Amino acid sequence: MTVRFAILGAGRIGKVHAGAVASVPGATLIAIADPMPAAAEAIKAAYGCDIRSIDAIEASADVDAVVICTPTDTHADLIERFVRAGKAVFCEKPVDLSLARVKECIATVEAAKGTLMVGFNRRFDPDFMAVKAAIDAGKVGKVEMVTITSRDPGAPPPDYITRSGGMFRDMTIHDFDIARWLLGEEVTEVFASASVLVDTRIGELGDFDSANVILRTASGTQAIITNTRRAAYGYDQRIEVLGSDGLAAAENHGENRITLADKDGFHTAPLLNFFMSRYTAAYANEIAAFVAAVAEGAPTPTTGHDGLMALALAEAALKSVAEGRMVKVSEVL
Amino acid sequence: MTVRFAILGAGRIGKVHAGAVASVPGATLIAIADPMPAAAEAIKAAYGCDIRSIDAIEASADVDAVVICTPTDTHADLIERFVRAGKAVFCEKPVDLSLARVKECIATVEAAKGTLMVGFNRRFDPDFMAVKAAIDAGKVGKVEMVTITSRDPGAPPPDYITRSGGMFRDMTIHDFDIARWLLGEEVTEVFASASVLVDTRIGELGDFDSANVILRTASGTQAIITNTRRAAYGYDQRIEVLGSDGLAAAENHGENRITLADKDGFHTAPLLNFFMSRYTAAYANEIAAFVAAVAEGAPTPTTGHDGLMALALAEAALKSVAEGRMVKVSEVL
Amino acid sequence: MTVRFAILGAGRIGKVHAGAVASVPGATLIAIADPMPAAAEAIKAAYGCDIRSIDAIEASADVDAVVICTPTDTHADLIERFVRAGKAVFCEKPVDLSLARVKECIATVEAAKGTLMVGFNRRFDPDFMAVKAAIDAGKVGKVEMVTITSRDPGAPPPDYITRSGGMFRDMTIHDFDIARWLLGEEVTEVFASASVLVDTRIGELGDFDSANVILRTASGTQAIITNTRRAAYGYDQRIEVLGSDGLAAAENHGENRITLADKDGFHTAPLLNFFMSRYTAAYANEIAAFVAAVAEGAPTPTTGHDGLMALALAEAALKSVAEGRMVKVSEVL
Amino acid sequence: MTVRFAILGAGRIGKVHAGAVASVPGATLIAIADPMPAAAEAIKAAYGCDIRSIDAIEASADVDAVVICTPTDTHADLIERFVRAGKAVFCEKPVDLSLARVKECIATVEAAKGTLMVGFNRRFDPDFMAVKAAIDAGKVGKVEMVTITSRDPGAPPPDYITRSGGMFRDMTIHDFDIARWLLGEEVTEVFASASVLVDTRIGELGDFDSANVILRTASGTQAIITNTRRAAYGYDQRIEVLGSDGLAAAENHGENRITLADKDGFHTAPLLNFFMSRYTAAYANEIAAFVAAVAEGAPTPTTGHDGLMALALAEAALKSVAEGRMVKVSEVL
Predict the structure, then answer these.
(1) C277 with D287: CB under 8 angstroms?
(2) Where would I find the H helices in C196-279?
(3) Closest CA to B261 of C254, C128, C72, D52
(4) From the CA of D315, how many Å to the nearest CA of chain A?
(5) B222, D245: Cβ pair inside 8 Å?
(6) In this complex, do A231 and C242 lie within 8 Å of one another by their Cβ atoms?
(7) Which of A240, B33, D184, D259 is the most exposed place for a label (fewest CB within 10 A)?
(8) What pLDDT shows up at residue B134?
(9) Which of the four pLDDT bands, split at 50, 70 and 90, describes residue A159?
(10) E-assigned strands of D209-274?
């Protein structure tokens, strides 16, 4: 079975997914929708698909699945519409910035027996998958401590901060998901310590740019997430899992793999500076995984529940910062 | 200008080039030729091009350029035919196993004012390009010593040995080209020491599976190439350039970038085990460079002369092994 | 001036300091004291010093300085006695397990205008010193986040847990000191999350074997400490400092620097497995720094105040674990 | 048994060996001899030994062993004198710059049933020992190719060139010894290619500053040595052994183990810049090995024969450069 796709939204991430759909075996790109004609035309020109309205796609019999790449505040509505229309749905994170709305949306998906995969692309990074595979193969024994270093190269413009829901809901949400995935046990408690060290305007907007978060599970295993919006040396993305028998760690990706040596020492390139170049393979792999699940009628590897739980951890982190204490996830869910 | 391509030969490397042509902006794949219908059909299915005979392609007005991926003994003839037909030609190395035939072929290309690029893909590896760029930017000062470690993961089947012209003409030829490129000065003398350590059948066929080669230029700068047909840990491809002010080195590519640690120590993955996975980017880049040259009417970055000189170094190496002495390149050219 | 030393306590750490005193230029070992004759004899045999009682050393006119390597519960008393006797004192950490006693002891030292250096050896590790020098030279810009990974290879025997005051006062205390030193600003708040994952007997004794700690300063800079009593791959000791302009990181020390590669990949040795082999240079350097300070009449690089503050952070961490909230250091001091 | 030592020569290397003798258990330093009173006094002051003349040491009943650290042209004579006097002899390399004289000297040692260890310190470097141990444990399978990168940080003054016998006899001689040791099979053929790239004065003296050497054994295994007198990034000392089942490699030693990252990338320190700091442990270990052999009456781990063979390879290399051909070692021995 070839899964026939439409993509909703032809912006930056829409283009990435269009490319992925076009190149993944078993998938074909039927249509693109975007209010900006030029953006949609560019996708059409590149991949030879139709341009259709969202309404038209909803009604299209030749579309099996949609990828939602529209602004965050439209995600939940579109998920509900398309699930009801019988389409398999892949939606960029987050489902919504409101936990209540996310729960409602998931209920709708479940009622419709629909398919919803939330785009936590990092789970599909080849290195992170290799770490997970090592854990699952017992290479580190029982997982005890997860350490996630996740640093953006630079802070986004202030207006993005507002739209995105702030650092925990926008940036750390990926790390929350990775922590849950690697811990292999649900997180029950969250402590977060957040600061404004990079850009005072971020603080004026009520957000943070630097944070450390501790997550705990019922059995006492823990994860640490260390975040910042500024890393002069590039996009710093490392994970490390300590278990009873050892450690599994994924290293960073530099711009190249050459070393220069001179009288001052040895020099290697900065890290890849952009999430799309760092996670190129992850974006392709997540669409391939979605295609495989839809084609086989199997569960998707990430779900609406994963979207809910990652957002709940973000809410708990915000509450923890406000109250200076460990917050139970059950307090916010 | 879009460069319209035909590919001659739909084997392993033909498929790689078809994919590259299909994805490089500014190029389009018009036709594929192969005596094996199934092979040609596969390319047609993947990229939507025509299947045509070599004769038909030669006569096709809608083809600007060809990529020759046929067996080595057909290369020189096809280059001559297609250059005379006014097509730009990209040919896999080697042009021919006979130096005389290569010279003749180059003369034909020159007489026809044709375009010939020889597929020394490694010059287009992003890391090796970064090393070259560092040299050209003066980061290592004056180049003095080039060290090339080039080890295949395993020996080819004996019948390939015969067809390929032996290790120096088939495998080391890439290293000869890289050495010339990095030294930035023509090689004038060659010493080679070859052994049979991996597979006695290779020795029975008169070839070698392990060799060290020293190259010298007129100014006394040197290159060392160390080759073997067996590296248990994968496809070992390293270059290192020592200059008066420092060193530039390109590291190997592992299967992933994770580290596992346990009571026995730290463990990382074997190297990518296959030249096509190691040099994926290089194959794409070389076609892009060819397209750019053809589109702009500019010289190609590698030429028939490069093919000739690399083969001459192989011949000199063979003579050196036979005679146990340093051989001047002028003795074989 | 040659500083004439006596060492109180000829146990494991006493031997290390005896060796340091014997080999540091400008210092000479005059006497050793230990209730176990065999231990004292071993030091005498190795370095040719006298064996004297603690009382005799206190009264010795030919002793300028003492190194206190006796059990923790004797430290504060001995510091006070020897400072009053006019000797310069180097004391192993901690000064005492009671904050009140430490304060009292420091007050005594100050009243006597005495010299007290507390043995936070890690500040004298050549790599950690290089990190600090890089910070001080402005290489990373303004310090924002410190990450300390500090993992013991294996848990100590349960009876040690009791005597030592528990993980925070015994093991993390070193990391607290390093964090204060690297942050360059006093820590004002502590959050700690502790678990028993390695050895249930440790939990039965009321202690922990795995912990993550977040430290904050008034300006919002933060440090994370991640601790465990078990790392299968050896003694894991890393520090990393993120600043506005970059990162400075100290790597681990393996048993050797060789790499083995085989069909399974690349393998390097486990980490040095013992704090004394990992920090050999640090132990020598700290005594040299003490000798230099005493000889020049200069302040020692670590002081009783450093001992007090590191213990206060341990107390705050314990309180944080008990109460599940961020604890101000002022609450415990 | 404690081995009682005298050291002949209190220069740079004499000081190193004096320190080693003083610190190795089972050895004691009795006397130092040097025509420069100040040099001998410095050793005496540091270690409390006697100052004696060479004649007096030869006659000293309280001296079991000597370490010869005098100028090269005195080595052979002193070896013979002290072996005849019944002393165990450790002599710095080379035994002599004349192969004939070395053979004669070895004959004298054998006739006297004397003990002679030649100071090839690198065999005692902990990392190189770990590589050798890995080979001996079968970790790389059958040894096929040895690669030695050996680069001095800077060229010695021209007058040293003359005294030392030139690059092959002075610098490469260490690499020849390491190659023999790692190949585990005697070298039978040598090819060398030498250039003057660093300092024209070295060329005017008839020597070289840059060279590549290929060594072959009867079974066809090979070693490559790449040398230069200038490496801007420090003292570059790497070995790599390829076998049928894998690779063993010893990495370089930097000045520290910290990494700095900034907008230009990642930076680590230059290499240790001096052979004495790079090989500190090797110097201590070789004296310990000599002491152990003397104490046990066992064969020393390196012998006069090793000194002879390494020099023979240097002679063969010189002949190879002169004649531009592979030279059999039997031609020079």
Answers:
(1) no
(2) 200-204, 275-278
(3) C254
(4) 33
(5) no
(6) yes
(7) D184
(8) 98
(9) confident
(10) 210-217, 222-228, 236-243, 246-250, 258-262, 265-268
- What is the CB neighbour count within 10 angstroms for residue D163? 14
Residue D229 predicted with pLDDT over 90: yes
CATH at D266: 3.30.360.10
- Shared domain for C81 and C218, answered yes or no, is no
Sign, CA torsion D29/D34/D37/D43: negative
Q: Which residues of A238-271 are buried (b: 16+ CB within 10 A; e: fewer)?
A: bbbbbbebbbbbbbbbbbbbbbbbbeebbbbbbb
- Is residue C212 within 8 angstroms of chain A, CB to CB? yes
Question: Residue B221 sits in which domain range?
Answer: 123-280+310-331
Residue type for position B106: I
Question: What's the alpha-carbon Rg for chain D, to the nearest Å?
Answer: 20
pLDDT at D243: 98
Which of A220, A226, A242 faces C147 most closely, judged by CB atoms?
Answer: A226
Conformation bin of residue C194: beta by default, left when phi > 0, alpha when psi is -120 to 50: beta
Candidates A85, A114, A100; CA nearest to A8 is A85
Task: Give the helix/strand (H/E) hosting A225.
Answer: strand A222-228
Is D39 in the same domain as D176?
no
Neighboring chain D residues of C45 at a CB cutoff of 8 Å: none
- List b or e across A130-146, with b for residues whose CB sees 16 or more CB atoms inside 10 angstroms: bbbebbeeebbeebbbb
Query: Both D132 and D33 in a single domain?
Result: no
**Which of C265, C266, C270 has the CB atom closest to B264's CB atom?**
C270
Residue A89: helix, strand or coil by DSSP? Answer: strand
On chain B, the residues whose CB falls within 8 A of the CB of A252 are: 257
Residues A141 and A231 in one domain: yes
The most distant pair of C-alpha atoms in chain C lies apart, rounded to whole Å, by 67
pLDDT band at B106 (very low <50, low <70, confident <90, very high): very high
Q: How many helices (H) and strands (E) does chain A have?
A: 13, 15
Q: Using alpha carbons only, what angle is made at residue C8 by residues C7 and C9, rounded to the nearest 5 degrees?
A: 110
Per residue in D57-102, pLDDT tens? 999 999 999 999 999 999 999 999 999 999 999 999 999 999 999 9
CATH number of the structural domain spanning residue D83: 3.40.50.720
Contact residues on chain C for D258, CB-CB shorter than 8 A? 127, 130-131, 134, 248-251
Segment holding A104, helix H or strand E:
helix A99-111
Number of domains in chain C: 2
pLDDT score recorded for residue C159 = 87
Beta-carbon pairs below 8 A across chains A and B: 78
Which of B149, B151, B233, B262 would you mutate first to test chain C, the one with the most C CBs within 10 A?
B233
Q: Tell me, yes or no, whether B79 and B139 share the same domain.
A: no
Confidence of residue A82 (pLDDT cuts 50, 70, 90): very high
How distant is the Cα of B86 from the closest Cα of chain A, in angstroms?
30
ipTM value: 0.95
Is the per-residue pLDDT at A255 higher than 80? yes
Q: Which of B228, B238, B267, B272 to mutate to test the interface with C (most CBs of C within 10 A)?
A: B267
Do residue D129 and residue D251 come from a single domain? yes
Q: What percent of chain B has pLDDT over 90?
A: 95
Phi/psi of residue A276, each to 5°? -75, -30
The answer on pLDDT for A1 being more than 90 is no
Mean pLDDT value across residues B265-280: 95
Q: What is the dihedral of CA C321, C322, C325, C326, to 10 degrees?
A: -60
What tokens appear for D52 in the block?
Answer: 């004696």
- C26 has a chain D CB within 8 A of its CB: no
Which pLDDT band holds residue C175 (cuts at 50, 70, 90)? Answer: very high
Each residue's pLDDT tens digit, B1-57:
799 999 999 999 999 999 999 888 899 999 999 999 999 999 998 888 999 999 999
